[in-house]
Every structure is written in C-alpha cells, then in structure tokens.
Amino acid sequence: MTIRALSVSNYNFRSEDRLFFDANIWLFLHGPQQSPVRNRVKTYSQAFKRILIAKSHIHIDVLIVSEFINSYARIMWRNSRSNIDFKRYRNSTQFKRIAPTIASDAELVMQHCSPVESGFARLEINDLLDEYAAGGFDFNDQVITELCKTEGLTLITHDGDFKGSAVPILTANKKLLV
Description:
single chain; alpha/beta; Rossmann fold; 10% strand
C-alpha cells in the first residue's frame, strides 16, 4: 500500500511523532553547504527547528550514520578538485585535516537522536534481494523502508527514490508530493 507523502514545510510536528531522517536531510543540516541546495537547507532547517520545539523523537541507525559520513567525505573530495581517486584521497594529509570536522558533524547529528537497531536479523533479506534484482531499487532505501515500517517511524527525506513507498514520508521534494 502506497502512503501519500506530506509537505515537511506544512507539517505540524508533535511530541509523539517518531521520525527518521534520511542521510540527505542530515547532510542539509550538518554537512558541507553547497549553493545549489540552499533552498533545501533552509526548508529542512526550518522543519528541524519546529521538530526540536515540538520535542518530537528523532531516531537513527548505523546505516544513516555511515551514509552521512561517507557522503560527506565524497562531497569534500569532489570540492577539493583533487586529481587522485577517492581511496587515495582518504589516506592523504588533506583528508586527515577534514576528517575531524566530519566526525564532529556526525556527533552533532547523534546529539539529536535515539539509536534504533536496523533489524537486519528480522529482515526478509531474500525478498529484498528479489526486489533489488528486479531493478530500480536502492538496497539501503529498501532497508530504511523496512526499518520505518517495523518501528512505526515517519521518514523525512528528499530522495525521490522513495516515491510510492509504504511508509509515511515528510518531504520538500515536489516529485514525492504529487
């Protein structure tokens, strides 16, 4: 069953809301700022402020922390315009200077969250792999969807891949809102 996504800009957050932020949202809030996404940063920052005021519950799992850290590092690599590949960049002195910032920003993310287990042991992994094999699915997104379903969490994301998802979604992505 598909659940219609709602606008994060108009949503009235409550203390009983149980939320799960996708890594892209954490990158807008605590990642390196890039000019093409300034409007998204503003929209999700305003929503985040309302979430904190409402004292909604924000949950996170290791998959999101990993995606946040790895995406952040790749953004910094691309911004560095380095002519070395990513793995060599990660071992460079240039990266060693920014790694503490990435770790510090990940700690900021964690300050607002309660950890939740991904439920890997409970996943119907063969079903997820069959869906993945059919094409058109991101495996991490499948795991996030299942986690939100089993834990009763509302997903906040800007990722259009969640269109037609079977979990409640709050977003500013117009493709998800139609």
